[in-house]
């Protein structure tokens, strides 16, 4: 998900993946009939929330309409880690975090001097995006609040996602980083201010949906991305499938319906896709790996508890930790850290499900490259550094739900719905790879992502 309160944990808002053959890496040639594309992301939307909406007592008329009028995945297997920023970058590029470089929500900050800074800036993404592909195909593009969108080169009308403090100055920051004049023009047209970047409430989503509709009405972009944050926000603080989360999801369904109607008026032949970045699991305990790393002398702190140095450090990723070594090629240091992690894995209080090396999960690169990954058991949360002296396990506090676990967990499955001309109706695509979504959308708009790590999905024929 996106911005969350600083304590007890920053929001951390994703698969063990293997190499694909060269045939799968090839992207289909642009089709003869290209369509405008509207891509909507609902952070934290679980597949069963839509597939089983009626059985769960959810009123989602607009989302469930995709099940009859379009194609849908029964589940989407995400990427490692199952967090908002890595996953959204995979959704827009078709490659895994090890390739695109957005390997967490927050940037690597072992001395904690970046004031909880996130991977907001597009320059950190090393892969071609759907915005790039659309631009190369001569199409106009737009964005409303998609993660990792500050400074994207090929977005014609950009309202990027960024925040710092929640202070009113954050609006000035968005205004300065958006397409020049765009915020002013849309605010004048709508008669209201654009939402603060840190506003993750349903009201914030409602505001951004309105701005997206006005942007479509005024500019009719060929490809537009729109991101909704409120469901994830409520699932973190109340837990998944709670009355609060249900209310928010039903509200977002209305926003989706209004947005789709606006897009259809601008582009009757548009393809509409709804995605999510990860699933969700209820949580009750936070695991403070810093406790063990400080005791082992791998992280040093001063008398006030400020971190002063590190040889190896945890990097909290929601339901997992990346472990980064100051000297990755130091065999003695690596063995020392491995011994510590194995000892922790044997301690039931640590709630560790698995300890793997980065190479075991195809993650030998990154920004920076981790040396180990620690997957926690469902229900435990990876705590960032909260100060010295805390025990290994502490209550999860305000956080009642979490994601970021290894993507093999069924709870981490995400959503894909798509409808439009030429797309089979009532077609269950089964379980798909998240990396297949971007090349599929590129194909629909008559563009290409030649470096995507999966082939486009076949949306033209009903499953047997």
TrEMBL record:
<dbReference type="InterPro" id="IPR002591">
    <property type="entry name" value="Phosphodiest/P_Trfase"/>
</dbReference>
<protein>
    <submittedName>
        <fullName>Type I phosphodiesterase/nucleotide pyrophosphatase</fullName>
    </submittedName>
</protein>
<dbReference type="GO" id="GO:0016787">
    <property type="term" value="F:hydrolase activity"/>
</dbReference>
<dbReference type="InterPro" id="IPR017850">
    <property type="entry name" value="Alkaline_phosphatase_core_sf"/>
</dbReference>
<dbReference type="Pfam" id="PF01663">
    <property type="entry name" value="Phosphodiest"/>
</dbReference>
<feature type="signal peptide">
    <location>
        <begin position="1"/>
        <end position="34"/>
    </location>
</feature>
<keyword id="KW-0732">Signal</keyword>
